[in-house]
Amino acid sequence: MIFFFYPEMSLRDWANGVLSWYDLTVNGQNFVDGVEVIGLLNFVYYNPTKVYFGTGVNSQVGEVVGGEFKKVLLLYGSGSAKSSGVYDDVVKSLRASGVDFRECAGVKPNPVLSKIEEAISIIRRDGLEAIVAIGGGSVIDSAKGISAGACYDGDVWDFYKRTAKIARVMPFFAVATLSATASEMNCTSVVTNESLGVKTGLTDNALFPRVTFLDPSVQFSVPAKQIADGGIDAICHVMETYFDGTSGVDVQMEYAEGLVRSLMTLIPDAIRNPRDYDVRAQLAWASANALNGTTWAGHAGKGDFASHAMGHTLSAKYDTVHGESLAIMMPAWMEYVCAGNEHAFARFARRVLGVTSPVDGKASREGIAGMRKFFESLGAPARLRDIGVPAADLPELADSTAFAPIGVLRKLGRDDILAIYRAAF
Amino acid sequence: MIFFFYPEMSLRDWANGVLSWYDLTVNGQNFVDGVEVIGLLNFVYYNPTKVYFGTGVNSQVGEVVGGEFKKVLLLYGSGSAKSSGVYDDVVKSLRASGVDFRECAGVKPNPVLSKIEEAISIIRRDGLEAIVAIGGGSVIDSAKGISAGACYDGDVWDFYKRTAKIARVMPFFAVATLSATASEMNCTSVVTNESLGVKTGLTDNALFPRVTFLDPSVQFSVPAKQIADGGIDAICHVMETYFDGTSGVDVQMEYAEGLVRSLMTLIPDAIRNPRDYDVRAQLAWASANALNGTTWAGHAGKGDFASHAMGHTLSAKYDTVHGESLAIMMPAWMEYVCAGNEHAFARFARRVLGVTSPVDGKASREGIAGMRKFFESLGAPARLRDIGVPAADLPELADSTAFAPIGVLRKLGRDDILAIYRAAF
Predict the structure, then answer these.
(1) Domain ends where: A172, A196, A219?
(2) Scanning every residue of chain A, which has its alpha carbon at the shortest distance from the alpha carbon of B298?
(3) Does B258 contact A262 at a Cβ distance shorter than 8 Å?
(4) In DSSP terms, which residues pair with B162 in a beta bridge?
(5) Cα separation of B54 and A249, whole Å?
(6) By CB distance 3.0 to 4.6 Å, which of A59, B13, B125, B133 could disulfide with B75?
(7) DSSP state letter for A68
(8) B59 and chain A: CB distance < 8 Å anywhere?
(9) Between A and B, how many residue pairs show a Cβ–Cβ distance under 8 A?
(10) Boundary-marking domain end, from B219, B251, B278
């Protein structure tokens, strides 16, 4: 399995399939990788998803969907939608509003193209009008592919490989059951084409959920390991935008710092008190905001997803959990690129981790150590050796990651990447 | 002239015409005024406005509008649209994209109903399809009224007095020339009906601009007085949500604190260096975010607009500039309601103003004094006597303000309001 970089895909699409809904220019010039940019970049901000947030909102699904549509596809995964009771609530709500539905179940955690094709054929066969997706990132990512494919005569994979542009989509509604990827509030879909052995991401303004229902209380049963994994993902989403060489965007850096401070409190709180509604609610909202476009506006824009890129290589080869791969690679990347960028890392260390040293070099080192310690406190591994990666594999990992250019704060070639993997070992 | 409280209008509509696009319930219960709420309230978040932000974006107006519409109304005020060159840029851009337009000029700073009616009759006479509004809050607020009235057979004032519901609107585009009210990124319209002598606000999800073009460089010529006035307005928008008795919403309080910290740096910077793009850009984005829904989500929701309410009474009677009325009333209100709520005011003082006292009572007093000092540093008056209000008028001001209930953090009756006016004198 490889994570494939199609021509015309941006690095960001490749690394995490996120956020190309920002068209980035600096005073009419394209943003140049690796160059420090001072001040807000030109950007386009857009996020039309309507979010019904809070306890009990899933009982409104039928009323909201039924106001426009009478025959929908109900899409979900294999486990939690039913065990959490969300499926029952949604079905009850749809029936009460006279909304007819067909089902497509069994979306996998790493969603596959064949399931998207199956769903599209059900929609065509039964003349369905919209999609209601119950689940986390994988189900919502799949719904985005279905939404585009259902209104297209060709092969839906055309969109993922950039040989066709989305002209029209089928509206879809998301009922979120897991806060991590922020797919419930962005327009990115990451999918695996099993027959090609390719996993890739698609980002398009047409792919925002029309409405997302986000009831934090349905996440009471999400286990500690998954809270930690999703929380690390959310923190890294914010950090990867923060550390991309843009400075003089205080208003956006303030927001990012506040989000990370909050997440660093909320994640352990949610692990300790899994049924604390107030904690779950804040965690759910913070995770959605970590990748819904708010942190990105004008600030850096492209983000530096080098850690995500190196982490994806681990996941592809060893099936490493996404959050674990980030917990290892993010601090190793920070250490490697810190030289020359101490000021940004020191600011982060002081404002987010309470580091007091007035010396940038010392403060930034303490900040990086602090992040590693925090990830470890959540039970995440600190080193590649902890997850069983053999030292002999490191050159191959570097080759796999380096087939496309990565890095914005600092451009990373194959040797840089190998050095980071070695440091992470 | 009175600021009129129509039946079924919320206090928030009345005070500032803002944000009823949040439907507020706490676990299914309506939010109760004056009761401390712990944790995120249920809410609906929605903001579909697409924002083109940055230098030169106004040259894209024609392309974006012309993609959908060929005959539009061009709405603007009397002065700055033309003197700043924005009018010329927009006209050039519309012509280049083959978009035909009719003009309606002369929107006043406190926009009036008759201008909205004039614009609607031009739209009907010439069969126009959309609206392009060039200006600040008054022009964009007017465009919202026109947008609703153009698709309605009855009297557009019906919407403002809540005897009709908006069913359909004409799409409108905003070209923002002044950052203050955030009208460019919310769905509220405040208008004066001259024949009735009534000013009121209308908030409806249908009234978001479809697209806003926000080029900070066109604000280089905004004078210092107006920067200060708009900046104080933006800061108070954030504070009035922050101080409303909701606690345990750290993720949202962090965001609000960061915004106020940024604004307190950016406003004097913009006054000192009016042509500094990076400062203007951040100020423009911060002002839009101060009232675009982001700070409100789940946090407090209704906000406590008592300061706005008392300030509106001053503006109605003495034509006091909005920012000046807030600079006087906000600290006076803070002092009056602080007792029993020291914890929130102390948190704000420590995090925003750098107050170090560990004693809440002392810290909160220092914080209030700090805000008053900051407003004074911008050239705003500190006391009612400074703007020529006679002491003898205070009871009448209290009567005018108290005809509807105000206050969320603390409910304020007529005697409370009089005491606050006296303290502000």
Answers:
(1) A219
(2) A53
(3) no
(4) none
(5) 13
(6) B133
(7) T
(8) no
(9) 133
(10) B219
Phi-psi group of B246: left, alpha or beta (phi > 0 → left; psi -120 to 50 → alpha; rest → beta): beta
Same domain, residue pair A263 and A407: yes
Q: Write out chain B residues lying below 8 Å of A54, CB-based.
A: 25, 27, 40-43, 298
Question: Where do we find the tokens 């020339």?
Answer: B177
Cβ pair A42:B54 closer than 8 A: yes
B84: tokens are 């700043």
Tokens encoding A333: 């990347």
Which residues 290-329 in chain B show a CB within 8 A of chain A?
Answer: 294, 297-298
**A254 contact B CB<8A:** yes
Q: What was the ipTM of the complex prediction?
A: 0.91
**What mean pLDDT value characterizes chain B?**
88
Are A14 and A323 contacting, i.e. CB atoms less than 8 angstroms apart? no
pLDDT digits (tens, 9 = 90+) for A161-193: 889 999 999 999 999 999 988 999 999 998 888
| Residue whose structure tokens are 């604004």 | B263
User: What is the span of the domain harbouring residue B329?
Assistant: 2-45+221-424
Query: Are both A233 and A327 inside the same structural domain?
Result: yes
Instruction: State both tokens at B258.
Output: 């960061």
A10 and A103 fall within a common domain: no
Q: Could you tell me if A253 and A204 lie in one domain?
A: no
Measure the CA–CA gap between A389 and A317, rounded to whole angstroms: 10
CB-nearest partner of A44 from B52, B266, B294: B52
- Token readout for A175 is 């009922």
Q: How far apart are CA B301 and CA B17, in angstroms?
A: 14
CB contact under 8 A, B40 and A285: yes
Give the tens place of pLDDT for each residue, A47-74. 999 999 999 999 999 999 999 999 999 9
Q: 């006091």: which residue's tokens?
A: B320
DSSP label at residue B243: S
Total domain count, chain B: 2
pLDDT of residue B36: 59
Query: What tokens appear for B265 in the block?
Result: 């740096």
Residue A308 DSSP class: H
pLDDT in tens, B64-82: 999 999 999 999 998 789 9
Looking at chain A, the whole-number percentage of residues with pLDDT higher than 70 is 90
Q: Token digits for B201?
A: 């606000």
Cβ atoms of B322 and B311 within 8 Å: the answer is yes
Ranking A45-54, A57-66, A132-141, A291-300 by mean pLDDT, the lowest is A291-300
Cα B377 → chain centroid: 22
Contact flag B266-A277 (C-beta cutoff 8 Å): no
Q: Which residues of A80-106 are buried (b: 16+ CB within 10 A; e: fewer)?
A: bbeebebbebbbebbeebebebbebee
The DSSP bridge pattern shows strands B71-76 and B100-104 to be parallel
Under the banding of pLDDT at 50, 70 and 90, the label for residue B301 is low
- pLDDT tens, residue by residue, A242-280: 988 777 788 989 999 999 999 999 999 999 999 999 999
Spatial distance between the Cα atoms of A186 and B36, rounded to a whole number of angstroms? 33
B86: Cβ–Cβ under 8 A, 6 or more apart, which residues? B58, B80, B134, B175, B177, B215, B218
- Joined tokens for residue A12: 């960001």
A266 CB neighbours in chain B (<8 A) are 250-251
Are B136 and B114 members of one domain? yes
Cα dihedral B3, B9, B13, B14, rounded to 10, equals 20
